[in-house]
Predict the structure of Glucose-1-phosphate adenylyltransferase subunit GlgD.
Amino acid sequence: MDRLAGIINLDHEQDVLDELTYFRCGAAVPFAARYRMIDFAISNLTNSRIESIAVFARRKYRSLMDHLEQGKAWDLDRKRGGLFILPPDWNDPTDISRGDLQHFHNNIDFINRTLADYIVICGSQNIYNIDYRDALEAHKQSKADVTLIYKNVEELYPEYARSHKLDVDENGRVTGIHNDLQNQNVYMDAYIVEKNLLYELIEQCIAHGCSHFFFDGIKGKLNELNICAYEYKGQLSLINSIESYYRNSTNLLNEQFHDEIFQEASPVFTKIKDEAPSKYSLDSNVTNSLVANGCDIEGHVEDSILFRGVKIGKGAVVKNSIIMQRCEVEGNAVLENVILDKNCTISYGRTLIGAPEKPFVVAKQKTM
């Protein structure tokens, strides 16, 4: 059986979630009451029986490293293979690489030493649940040099304007990669490539002074390589703005949407924290909400997402909001269309109201 290795390339991802990325990279942003965004990327790889995974991290990665640790939550704390968190390390005086090619160049040993025949390269901003072995099988059958994974979306939300789109012919070959706002074939920032070809493309890009591997090594060689497409049929959430984060988070309150992301056969793993079950007082009223462990609720919670250890005081009202770890909403406070980052306190009787299209965001550790 052909083996796969994985690279999660965070190098080119921008920290575009405003207050949520003041102190962390986007991959470390909390999502869905218990998880971080990178959990979905790693879980997809491990559920595809990939045992060797590298994470290319350049900026604000302390929170990311704290969360991932040695990869135990994903069964990646192993003697052979496992999880490799690879921050910048530019110690080669002969290095002429630029951009994310610096990461590929300075960590080329990961590619050379892996026993895998193929490499899956993905990011963290696309949330989905996939078995990459199906894409690999399509890659081999088509005899492709590179296989790009895409989703034909029904509705073009604003966040897709920043995404690459694919033109795909009747044989599954990619004939165009562009930013056409009307094209519904959204590239999911994930592709499969044979290990030796990846090495060759990296060397070629560096020799020609390139700075972005996908743009220059793949998109720029569209007419030279056999680049094919694999269509993903499941649920996709692209998070590259506060608005898309808020909308895709609240979409999880829809049972069908939730179950397509969190599949029993392909679970999403995260760092384990042993906490007591949530406590609901006799005065509490919680409807259509996602509530993690360790919460203490005395007030009214509606259409909201509560992370671990959240406290909602008596008489407080929380609607259409996302409340992250260890926040406290004191009595008689009112929150609507609000995102609270970790360890925030909303004082007694305080009212914060945002709009569904522009939620009110409070940075971590603030008291209001």
The longest helix spans residues 195-207.
